[in-house]
Write a structure and sequence with these properties.
By secondary structure, this protein is an alpha+beta fold. It is built from 7 helices and 19 strands.
């Protein structure tokens, strides 16, 4: 069946068209104009509307690169339905290399916003009214904090069964239960019955090739799941399934100092294993040894050697079938490297 027209920001997009829009945002000092970049691909054939956003915290670059590569992917030439892409939703943060807006508010916790609300709330309102209202599904591409790396994982509200199916289709190595907090886009999506999944991988202000390629592959998997793209040959389909984390634990330092550790993301640790040693930079005080509280896998880590008292140094994922999860993630890393090397040789 032929696709129908869609209207966004007073623009009509016809079947088979690709359009770039710039949605006006609240101005800054000096009347400097700001715009939200929007890319819209309208398939010739009917299908759902998928919204993909990146850089919710302006210093997150991996998601922006995933969207840029998706636009160049030959698969989207066979698109059914509508693809709405927001390469940078927090334009202000991107310009200033920060995660927050000029008002220091966090955009992620400001939805649905208000037309007459705060600066942040007005941006959220514009986005929800003009963009989010058109979506049938939403994928949010984020990274870890600045100098904090995240192992590729999908976060999803298990109470939304449709969203859970998307998370499984994404085929990220880890799925984490998401409990939407009031004011988040996840909570707003659940209220409006729009399946929403959050992909987190890598760290802010850094390109991570594994995070980018895995994220792009996951987006294409979801698009096939909701029939926006043709299904792949079964022989080329991913054989590894995601493992669900029962909980995540932040391990924090009880003293300030220099963090010494050789552990990596995705590494399996047993209860009592040494995660790191915190040493006094002046060589005066005693060293602190931090151990794993229980059998777990490293899904996040602080990359800054200097840490403050109370600062998180590792994020650990706990799985019900720990040994199987550890083997799964190790196999996933090996297969990912093989796939990337094959893609590089064929490019």
């Amino acid at each position: 069946m032929r696709n129908s027209n869609i209207q966004i920001c007073n623009e009509i997009i016809h079947p088979g068209e690709f359009l770039s829009l710039a949605l006006p945002l609240p101005e800054l000092f000096g009347c400097a104009p700001m715009y939200l970049p929007i890319k819209i691909l309208q398939g010739k054939q009917s299908g759902p509307c998928l919204l993909i956003i990146a850089a919710m915290h302006g210093n997150e670059l991996n998601g922006t690169e995933i969207i840029n590569r998706l636009l160049k992917n030959k698969a989207v030439q066979k698109l059914h339905g509508t693809l709405i892409l927001i390469p940078v939703i927090n334009v202000y943060g991107l310009i200033n290399r920060l995660s927050t807006l000029p008002s220091t508010f966090d955009l992620e916790k400001s939805f649905p916003g208000s037309e007459n609300g705060t600066h942040t709330g007005r941006i959220a309102h514009i986005f929800c009214k003009e963009i989010f209202s058109k979506a049938d599904y939403c994928i949010d591409l984020q990274t870890g904090f600045f100098n904090h790396s995240n192992f590729p994982s999908i976060h999803v509200d298990f109470d939304d069964l449709n969203a859970k199916e998307l998370a499984e289709a994404y085929n990220s190595p880890v799925i984490t239960r998401l409990k939407p907090e009031k004011g988040t886009l996840a909570a707003y999506a659940f209220e409006n019955k729009i399946p929403y999944i959050l992909y987190k991988a890598g760290e802010a202000l850094r390109f991570d090739e594994v995070a980018i390629r895995s994220g792009l592959r996951g987006v294409l998997n979801v698009m096939r799941k909701i029939k926006m793209l043709p299904l792949r040959n079964p022989q080329k389909s991913a054989v590894l399934k995601s493992f669900i984390a029962d909980k995540n634990i932040w391990v924090r330092s009880s003293m300030s100092g220099i963090n010494h550790s050789t552990l990596k993301l995705g590494q399996y640790v047993k209860a009592g294993d040494v995660l790191c040693e915190i040493k006094d930079p002046f060589g005066v005080g005693d060293d602190l040894t931090i151990e794993a509280p229980e059998d777990s896998i490293i899904v996040g880590k602080n990359n800054i050697p200097l840490v403050y008292e109370g600062e998180g140094v590792f994020q650990l994922g706990v799985f019900s079938k720990m040994q199987q999860a550890a083997s799964h993630l190790e196999e996933w890393k090996e297969k990912t490297v093989e796939q990337f090397n094959e893609e590089r040789s064929n490019s």
